[in-house]
Structures are given as C-alpha cells and as structure tokens.
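re: ur msg from earlier - yeah i can do the magnesium ion complex, just paste it... oh wait u already did. ok heres what im feeding in:
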Amino acid sequence: MLSIQNLEVKYGAIQALKGVSLEVNEGEIVSIIGANGAGKSTLLRAVSGIVPCASGTVTYAGVPIHQMPPHQIVRRGLIHVPEGRRIFLDMSVYENLLMGAFTRKGDLTADIQKVCEIFPRLKERFSQRAGTMSGGEQQMLAIGRALMAHPKLLMLDEPSLGLAPFLVRDIFKVIHDINQMGVPILLVEQNAHMALEIAHRGYVLETGKIALADDAKNLLNNPAVREAYLGGD
Ligand SMILES: Nc1ncnc2c1ncn2[C@@H]1O[C@H](COP(=O)(O)OP(=O)(O)OP(=O)(O)O)[C@@H](O)[C@H]1O
Ligand SMILES: [Mg+2]
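and the outut:
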C-alpha cells in the first residue's frame, strides 16, 4: 500500500533521513521505534507532504505522492495524527471532530456516533472547549478527529506521550481496534515495548537510517533491541 524508497530529507545542513526504505501492507500495524532525534516524526511529515523529500520516492496504492501538497495526500486517505496532537484548542470537541471531516460533504451523524462508540468520553464532552480537556482526552480527540476523515492509512506520532499507564493501555487498545476495522497503521512510538507488542512488523530508526527491520515479535526478542530500547531486561 505505502512504499517508501531511499527517502532523504534535509533541514538545511541537517540530514534527518538518509535513505530510508519501508513498506506498510494492507491490514498491517507497522511500528517505527528509535531514539529522540532519530527522524521518526520527520518520516511521517515527509509522507504527509509537510516537509519536502530531497530524494527518493513515496508511493501510495501505486501512485507517487512525494511531490504532492499535503491537502492532496489527505484526500487520498493518508491521515496523520502529529506529535503533540495539534487539536484546535479554542474549538469545542464537537467542532474539532467536524474539522476532521473537512474533505467530505454530507451527513456526519453516523461518523460522529462511531467515534463516540470508540471514545465514550468525547460524547460526554461535546461542548467542552478542547483546550480545557486533559492530555489523554486531547489525544482521544486527535485520534477521533483523524477517524472522521475515513483514513485509508493512519499515521500516529507518539500517541502515548505523556499519558498515565492505564490511558496508554486504552490508547493502544483503540489502535488495535481501529486496525481490526481494516485500517493499516504506521505507528511512531517511544514506548517501544507496547509499540512492538501491538505491531505486525517494526523498524528501528537510528540517526536517519533503518538499522533493523523485522517481524515485531523478532524485534521484541532481539538482544540488541532489548538492550537499547526495551530497558535491557
Ligand atoms: N524544522 C526543523 N529544522 C531543523 N532541524 C530539524 C527540524 N525538525 C527536525 N529537525 C532535526 O531533525 C532530526 C530528526 O528530528 P525528528 O523530529 O524527526 O526526530 P524524532 O525521531 O521524531 O525525535 P523525538 O523522539 O524526539 O520526537 C533531529 O536532529 C532534529 O533536530
Ligand atoms: Mg518525534
């Protein structure tokens, strides 16, 4: 579905991605783990068209998208929940959800209802200003808003960041459920353990390069990965 080949991204003199290749297939959860500054967010930004690709290709469903502006990529159903959520703080929960569906016309009642089944908390807070929600609630809203766009591929950047452990489990459960509904997911996470447990496959990104690519189970059992990313136990 999504195929990235030899992708390079530069921020001025800094080369954040140095020839990254990866794939996400139909139905998969693919996790990218890596240290701070490894280039994980940059990779998602490049796929979304937010940062330009210096070289390499990104194809989605057989179509090259690496030259497309972000709005055209969104229209193809590649939906990105960025690091730090980026919800509209001054809008209500309900308005935020509607914004997620800006690419579509027509009745959104059924979509809103579906998101509320996944996140009952959001339904209780429809009229609350999003900026006054807790961190975990804001993350639910960010994912709920992304679902309103009918993602064909969902990219999540650090969805568990800053959440209490029980909320982290909730968020991972939701990610699993969304995938079960047929949505492939490209997941970037600091929480390497959870990210690999939930994933089919995983990639380890080190300073802009893929250091390892394997089935998630194999990565979980890989001594080098355990040492560097899973606390060594
Ligand atoms: N707008 C920018 N201008 C210059 N350098 C940048 C910019 N954005 C990112 N970088 C640099 O690119 C590298 C990769 O950053 P990126 O945000 O992709 O890392 P990351 O793996 O997501 O890290 P983290 O785990 O901390 O979120 C870092 O060295 C960072 O400083
Ligand atoms: Mg990041």
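cool cool. The pocket of magnesium ion (ligand 2) is lined by residues 40-41, 83, 157 (CB under 6 Å). ping me if u need the other ligands too
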